[in-house]
Specification:
mainly alpha; 3 helices; about 65% helix; PTrfase/Anion_transptr
């Protein structure tokens, strides 16, 4: 079952910064409590709140 799909278009200039963000997101998504909270969000604002709270 898929709970989260992330699609990003990254310029070559921003590639290094994106990789740091990507690694942080993957670490965060592997936490069961964060995955549960993210599965419950219904809009981007809620998504941002969960990410900000858990970064």
């Amino acid at each position: 079952r898929v709970n989260i799909v992330v699609l990003a278009a990254i310029s070559q200039n921003d590639q290094q910064r994106f990789m740091r963000l990507y690694e942080a997101l993957i670490t965060m998504f592997s936490e069961p409590q964060v995955a549960t909270a993210l599965a419950r969000v219904r809009n981007f604002e809620q998504f941002k709140n969960v990410v900000k709270t858990n970064m």
